[in-house]
Amino acid sequence: MSLLSLFEKNPLSMYPILILLLLALLYLARHQAHRMVRSFTRIASQALRLAARSLLLTESKLRQRNREVLLAAGAGEIEKELEREFQRVDAVVKRDLQTYPAFHRSMSDLITRIDEDYRQSTEAPPSPPAWISAIEAVAQVPNTDGGVAEILGEINKTLDRHHKSAMDDYRKSSQRRHSLLNKMMPVWRKLSETLEHVGKTINGLHERSELITAKMDEYEKIRLGTDEAERRLSSSSLTQFVISGLVMIIAIGGAIINFNLIALPMSEMVGGGSYIGSFKVSDVAALVIILVEISMGLFLMESLRITHLFPVIGQLDDRMRRKMIWISFTLLFTLAGVESALAFMRDQIAADLQALRHSLSGVEAAAGQVSSLIPTVGQMILGFVLPFALTFVAIPLESFIHSSRTAIGLTLGFLLRTTAFLLRLTGNLINHSGKAIIALYDLAIFPAIWIEDKLKKAPVQATSETPPKEVHP
Amino acid sequence: MKRLSCILIGLLLLAGGCTDTTSHSKAVYMLLDTSGTYTRELDKAAAIINYLLGTLQPGDSLAVARIDTGSFSEKDIVQKMTFDGRPSVSNQQKREFKQNIDTFVKEVKGSPYTDITGGILQAAEFLYETGSGRKVILVFSDMEQELAKGYVRDIPLQLEGIEVVALNVTKLGGDIIDPRKYMDRLEDWKAKVEQGQGQWRVINDLERLERILE
Fold first, then answer.
1. For residue A127, what are the contacts with CB-CB under 8 A and spacing of at least 6?
2. Residue A267 to residue B60, Cβ atoms within 8 A
3. Which residues of B touch A353 (CB under 8 A)?
4. What is the pLDDT of residues A448-461, one digit of tens each?
5. Where on the phi/psi map is residue A305: left (φ > 0), alpha (ψ -120 to 50), or beta?
6. pTM (2 decimals)?
7. Most C-beta atoms within 10 A of its C-beta, which of A200, A351, B29, B72?
8. Distance between CA atoms of B1 and B4, rounded to whole angstroms?
């Protein structure tokens, strides 16, 4: 019986031979297979590592660029703040300290007047009692005929008269002093006020100088590019990004309300059945009006130098800038008026539509239905106010644009780092999976490897049994 | 918000040169069966027409026609209208439409025969002429066609791009005895419409009118 006929009769008997053949083939191709697996995994892992390194380099460059942008923006900001502080100091100096010589003269005059008044108001010392020694001398004369008593009586009368006269003079003098002191009071007050004013100005300047010092320190740190300055600026920029983003969301909400307020009445003007692409012309027109309003608001804010999104507008001369303010304001005002009218029309159309729906459904309008002007007026006011409210979007928009540079830079950096990490991880996984594949390969052909080991060890054992060669000295 | 963002995206696409030339208006042609006892069901039809008037937008078209002995005729059109683009004018047109339909429902007289095929042919002609983006034929009938002697209606329908919706298909006496007749009748119409490359639907639950134009 041939082998072929045996296989035909019993096909299962051919499997052991096939397995043995496969094992033999796999064993023969072992080194090539190992090399191939090692080569492929190495290529893949090296490529991924290279890509990861490249990404990390890019991330490093991006971080450097972010740092530069952040520091430049921070320096620019501080420069603006310092400029503003100096302008304020200049204004204070011009307003208050420029007139200091006049103040000084005024204060000197006041002090002189006070001094003069003070001198005049001093109390005159009372005249010394000269009469006492005369009375004592007369009293020592012997009183024989009563002449001394008469003299003393006369002296007493004269003294009384003199005392009365002195008292009158004293009262008059006191009265004059008091009047002088009374006149000094307003002068004192004025002097006190003047000094207080000067004190306030000096204090204000002192506070400003402290602020300028702090800002200068900060500016110095930014100029030096310290990590602390970078961290502070980064944190500040992200805070700005979040806050301005929130305000922008609120503004978008306002724009949506505005859109809904004018989209329906616009169909009365441009037709409700016309389409541009797959969008109603009325919706597009309403959107365009809102966008034009926002643009006018931006121009207004730029012309007022509140925002600095368009350097060209900021560089215009003052006359042209004022013209631009008036033009943009007039257009904004006109559009607000149009919106208000559209809001009124919307109310009319909505009421008409409601009435039609009632008649179609066979429902009579409720008897107690409130017909108030308040919703109409409210809508009109809303339509008028919203365009002006949207004008202020320019401020958060500017902040958002500026801070988004930092936020986007940081996000990109994070994404690059994460991607690099994932690439390195994948590279390592591929490298290790190559080793695992080689181990699995060896495991699959372990009988052949085992036999190979045995065959290799056999001659070694044989040689170990041979006696060692003699070593001749 | 969604609409606003859609418009913004749309404008960007337009700026990029991707223009959409398809019409976005709707045209609805409603056929009313006025044969025999079916005239008693016309109040329901009036309710459907009122629903359509409330749903259709400025720029859309609506026509109402009766199915009688020979329906392939303009004379059977009770009222047809393409609503103005301005909502205020469109509302006024809808009021007039409703008034005319109410008058028709009150004064309608039953017809001896029911030429549904002729009505559908007439409807398709009208709908194609409107050039609307979406074309719908509503057939308010029991879908039992009865032709007068000499009328030839054994012709294939051309309903490409048209949806045919059978509404309130009442069961006839014979249907109750043998429901297969009812099913066969609807199946025949479905085959006929689909052979004409139209789409076929049946809506018997008139509580859910929003399904008509879904």
1. A166
2. no
3. 87, 91
4. 888 888 888 776 55
5. left
6. 0.66
7. B29
8. 5
